[in-house]
Amino acid sequence: MALLNDNYLKLKAGYLFPEIGRRVKAFTEAHPEAAARLIRCGIGDVTEPLPPVVVAALHRAVDEMAQRSTFRGYGPEQGYDFLRSAIAQNDYRSQGMDIADDEIFVSDGSKCDCGAILDILGDRNRIAISDPVYPVYVDTNVMVGHTGSADVSGAYEGLVYLPCTPQNGFIPEPPKEAVDVIYLCSPNNPTGAAATRPQLEAWVAYALRHGSILLFDAAYEAYITQAGVPHSIYEIPGARECAIEFRSFSKNGGFTGTRCAFTVVPKSLKARTGTGESMALHPLWSRRMTTKFNGVPYIVQRAAEALYSTEGRAQVRGLIEHYLGNAAVLVAGAKAAGLTVFGGVNAPYIWVATPAGNTSWQAFDRILSEAHVVITPGSGFGSKGEGYFRVSAFNSRANAEEVARRLQGLRW
Ligand code: MLT
Description:
It is built from twelve helices and 15 strands. The chain is an alpha/beta fold. Strand 11 (341-343) and strand 12 form a beta hairpin.
């Protein structure tokens, strides 16, 4: 009989969001009258339609696909030059960062790339992750056998957990020990905290000292409102030698269902071979993409390119302001309800301490059954997320205002 991948058996029962979906389904089936009132602030999925520049670019590109003379088949696996160049120029070079067009790899999502990147890294690295953390970083490492089993708190043997608490502003500090690969996410999912320049400088210095690699997830960079907060790890000198950056069009251009993202792998980034030589990772990632990926659809890449036009930028700004406006409404509502609230300023998430000693899942169940609002229990993001819940600001303004009201109606 064929063997399965035993590592999958170490995973906790379900990926967090399907588990939430299962509980919500059970609740609405048992209480059909509540289903119509339900407001979803769980998964961070955008709600507003695609920006008009994107819709127009999609139509134009579809028309090209309808003509023999402009039809496209397979595209370059790393992305079309027009999009790689628009990204490198607008997101990096125009901001003073030295990133070449061919250091940009266009993909169908940062979640996919965060998992896929493990293909080009060795399997004996010491891996550090924040706690709480976006579960994909952990689960993808479990799936490829980089960990032992989980303990009762859900912590996997072999991973180094970096606690994120109110005391450190939910930004992890470099550990005393040497680790090889570190996942950083700023602005952070789930806590909404954004790392300052000195904090990122400390991480780059640590990585250069230990020969480590920072896997920097900047999917929410467009939500940064505070001046001086870095939008990219490459704003920090030395990061080209120690960091890979993941970015996405999901949360700025509303592409969660359209699918387009990119990963930056600088040519100067090196890692060690089994025999101790230092080698660049860029050719390995390029090789991985050409072998396992056939590129993002042409029409989608044209749509992403449109986000960099003058109107595109203004329309993205409008979307971000809408969601951050919701975040402000939710923060104010939760505070008025007497709750302790973090985040929501540089990120579309608010991170709330559960009141009255409730666990995260108890708070989830109460908010679902009494307020008919779906949130995400903090413990789903790691043991240090216990005692918190996350509210997503991706919604209509009317829904955000209604959630703010309902939170105030709860008696804990
Ligand atoms: C979340 O809710 O944490 C996000 O939607 C996850 C993601 O972007 O994959």
